[in-house]
Amino acid sequence: MQIILGITGGVAAYKSAELARLLVNQGHLVRCILTEAGARFITPLTLTSLTGEPCYGANPDQGEWRANPSIEHIELARWADLVAVVPATANILGKAANGLANDLLSTVLLATRAPVLWAPAMNTGMWEHPAVQANVTRLKSFGHAVVDPGEGFLACGEEGSGKLAEVASIAEAIQVHGSPKLRSLNGRRVLITAGPTREDLDPVRTLTNRSTGRMGVELARAFRDAGARVELVLGGEGPAPWGVETVRVHSAQQMLEACLARWADSDGLVAAAAVADQKPECPSIEKAKKGDGPETLVLVRTPDILAQLSAARRSDQWVLGFAAESENHLDHAMAKLKNKGLDAVLVNDVQDGKGFGAQANTLTPLTAQGAHPPIGPLSKDQLARAVVQWWAQRLEARPD
Questions:
Q1: pLDDT digits (tens, 9 = 90+) for 29-67
Q2: Residue 325 has what pLDDT?
Q3: CATH code (residue 172)
Q4: Are both 305 and 338 inside the same structural domain?
Q5: Active-site position among 32, 55, 156, 282
Q6: DSSP states of 149-190 as a string?
Q7: What integer best gives the mean pLDDT of the chain?
Q8: Is 156 a catalytic residue?
Q9: How far does CA 182 lie from the centroid of its chain?
Q10: Pairing of β 318-325 and β 229-234
Q11: Is the pTM of this model over 0.90?
């Protein structure tokens, strides 16, 4: 992606350097535009060194407008796939909301047809002022995205809202709003389950599995970036992705109830969670103590979430399942596909601990027509995007 990073005059401008570095490391081309006030907080040399691209706009050595045979603001506006203003002051928000353009950044914002993203940062009183909020609302009506500031201690010594959002969250928002949308997924509601479930043995111990939930979270990100409206039902302790409605659950029963509450309003299901298949028949209210003799644990089955959701689906809903297998992978996965009435199963070889954690992974898609070429080995974020591309193509080919 080709990104214009606009930097205005606020203390948080120093964080724009970290953002620029992160975006470049993610493979994006980044060109920075400094306002005159922004150049008082961070230098063009810093930004050029981090991005490997020219820094435009205010320059203490050359001034705002320097000799250039091109029409600079138009060329930059056309070059950008996305324009992000980080930090965005009350001044630039007001200018852009009212169509004012008196420097390079404001003229680029007026000329561009690329998506625009704002990350405001300012004093609490300024952020909450009706004029600023009205300007933010108007920018949103233009189709612009806003990463709302967080709360905390501000440079002015006050505590409250107005603190620049976390750099990682801003980078993720840029990825969301700059990514091309897939026609078969854009605007669709997709329900995704991820992470392990845990069945309590007593107040201290649980019965669970080795899943980290990362694959499901990356799938939530990939479907989100493709334009889907994702709802994530997440077990475990992993972080939820930015911009995805997430409900945290503990047990299989909680996951089932959360899914049933959302399934009727969904267009499709991606069941990536590693659900514990058994739970204790009689969990202990108090911490179980060690005994001298043999100990027996009686287990009973947990609800089959995927089977229940598949059985309750409408004809226009689709269901994509996962099968983590250690042997006879395709045979077991095909049985799961048929027995639960799924549209496709992604087969994951977990023999010898493969597939868990941050390592690269391979998934083999399986449909009623048989096995498809394996996807991978890829890192889990790349694998998730490849899976979404594969499934979007399948949806495109489906009759209405």
A1: 999 999 999 999 999 999 999 999 999 987 666 554 444
A2: 65
A3: 3.40.50.1950
A4: yes
A5: 156
A6: -EEEE-TTS-EEEEEPPPHHHHHHHHHHHHSPPPTTTTT-EE
A7: 90
A8: yes
A9: 16
A10: unpaired
A11: no
